[in-house]
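Q&A log
Question type: sequence-to-structure
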Amino acid sequence: MATQFKNKNVWMTQCRTLSMLCLGLALVACKASNETPQAAKKAEDPNLVELSAVLQGKVQLVKVGQAEIREVLRIPGSVQVDEQRIARIGAPVTGRITEIEAVLGQSVKQGQALASLNSTELAQNQLVYIKALQQIDLQSKAVERARVLLDADVISKAELQRRESELSAAQAELNAAADQLQVLGMSAQSVAKLSKAAQMHSFSTVSARISGTVISRKINLGQVVQPADELFVVADLSRVLAVAEVPERQVDSIEIGQEVNIEVPALHQSAIKGKLIYVGDVVNPQTRTVTVRSEIDNRAKNLKPDMLVSMLVQSKPLPKLAIPVQSVVRENDKDHVFVQVAPNKYRLREVTLGGEYQSMVAVVNGIEEGEVVVGEGAFHVNNERKRKELE
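Response status: OK
Response body:
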């Protein structure tokens, strides 16, 4: 009897154990069945999009290939005075400054007096001219007497010729003295006045060689100056130059005559249009750059020498791997395109882009030539991708 009771307990214990085991297996199976769709959902590629029939009609596909691209080169530079429109003015003669009539920034006309100076050198040359003028008078009278005496058969013809030769030499000396006075700053009218009055005037005038603006003044009252000294710089600022330095690796992309846009940060205005008038023939060995210049109309005098500018130059058209601008999708501050991986399936792929020209943009890396990408409609494809991410 005891043995039967014991066997019955063992049997019941085994049954309870088996029931618990079955219940555990059922729970595990149920949990696994619940997690399977979630795991499958997580395994889906979030960057892969399959389009609906409606969306397919809004999409145009483009085969990646070569296109002519002009890149925009942004070159830093500055405003400079045109060397063809500048005059560096010095004193015509050694002397001491007695009066200054022009100030920095003043507009002056050609021939206008900028300063005056007192010169002993000028006085000495005027004295030489007056003496040469007196010699002309003496030699002319000697020739007249010689002709009278020759007619009276008092002197020979050779004597008349000698006196005429002396008159010619005196005339040459007078001409040389007059030229020297003009070199020293005297005008032809002043020399003619000196011939009549025979009165020396030791003051000389420093005059403007061209019309323009005084952009430099390097003299003071009482200063002794020489012809080699630069006293004033006058520049015509109605036209100025935008000068920039192009890196040597980009020089083959530009040429004379190209249109450029010039931005002047200090003026806060739209870009100024111009053309390249000069591309340097040599490379600066220190900066490894080549100088380029563009001429700018500055009749309004808004541009000042040494203002900073940015010169935007389009390069020559070069064949490059390119895609339409509509293909580009901005995501997380990066550029992407949708690349076809299977019929009606497209994957979002990051790309690196270059310059843009005429609705095409160059591709540096990320896609290969011959691949098919979404052109028009890439925006709709990206919206579809985001919608599926939220499901």
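Response note: Confidence is low (pLDDT under 50) at residues 1-6, 35-42.
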